[in-house]
Amino acid sequence: MNHHAPSDSLVIAGKTYASRLLTGTGKFKDLDETRAATEAAGAQIVTVAIRRTNIGQNPGEPNLLDVLPPDRFTILPNTAGCYTAEDAVRTCRLARELLDGHNLTKLEVLGDQKSLYPDVVATLKAAEMLVKDGFEVMVYTSDDPILAKRLEEIGCAAVMPLAAPIGSGLGIQNKYNLLQIIEDAKVPIIVDAGVGTASDAAIAMELGCDGVLMNTAIAGARHPVLMASAMRKAVEAGREAFLAGRIPRKRYASASSPIDGLIG
């Protein structure tokens, strides 16, 4: 199906993934819908809010790992709901214990409950602590290019700028910031937060992002499993379009086409 080089895969922390769509596991009506949507999305990396989801810390309750087994999916524990660096670091360490020493983690330190905007000062602090502690950190941040570079320099495995506030569905609000982040980066850049529909995901990929992470856009759709399928195609199409190289924008075609080369 893919006509581009088969070597086009996403590499995060030394591991290779065919899918560039990463999905969240919260906000679905039940674990069955979570599983169906994840499969329809074709996601290989699934993010899990350790403070809200049972992955073994509550024995006897339904366990997410029963429907999304770690031998089939890369489980990406996240620190959703943490508002301080210390809290985020503690949550990551708990997740590492629950997942038998698994070091990949998604760091988010939120600044306020209304906007869920990242507290970038606390995020930098937590990222430094986690990298020192041997974690592979995929970090959620604002779309500030200087900050994105700083997080890369700290040693984060992937930098994940928001497209718009978490859960807003507003789509990409600042293409130029994202472009600058992508152009300057030596680690994967994954748009995380703010996607609302398939075209938003395609635009992120057309800009040259390495992937898109989303939860609300799928889980909150009227038909989550169908939206997951749409997002899978959008991410693939956007990636292919980026690799193919679009034509430049012009107000109208130049005269080179039909009349050029006519005799006379």
UniProtKB/TrEMBL annotation:
It is found in: Cytoplasm. Gene3D superfamilies: Aldolase class I. SUPFAM superfamilies: ThiG-like. GO terms for cellular component: cytoplasm. The active site is at K106 (schiff-base intermediate with dxp). Its EC number is 2.8.1.10. GO terms for molecular function: thiazole synthase activity. Its main location: cytoplasm. Keywords: Cytoplasm, Schiff base, Thiamine biosynthesis, Transferase. Pathway: Cofactor biosynthesis; thiamine diphosphate biosynthesis. InterPro entries: Aldolase_TIM (IPR013785), Thiazole_synthase_ThiG (IPR033983), ThiG (IPR008867). It catalyses: [ThiS sulfur-carrier protein]-C-terminal-Gly-aminoethanethioate + 2-iminoacetate + 1-deoxy-D-xylulose 5-phosphate = [ThiS sulfur-carrier protein]-C-terminal Gly-Gly + 2-[(2R,5Z)-2-carboxy-4-methylthiazol-5(2H)-ylidene]ethyl phosphate + 2 H2O + H(+). Residues 12-258 form the Thiazole synthase ThiG domain. It holds the Pfam family ThiG. One of its GO terms (biological process) is thiamine diphosphate biosynthetic process. 1-deoxy-D-xylulose 5-phosphate binds at G167, A193, G194, N215, T216. Homotetramer. Forms heterodimers with either ThiH or ThiS. Catalyzes the rearrangement of 1-deoxy-D-xylulose 5-phosphate (DXP) to produce the thiazole phosphate moiety of thiamine. Sulfur is provided by the thiocarboxylate moiety of the carrier protein ThiS. In vitro, sulfur can be provided by H(2)S. Belongs to the ThiG family. This is Thiazole synthase.
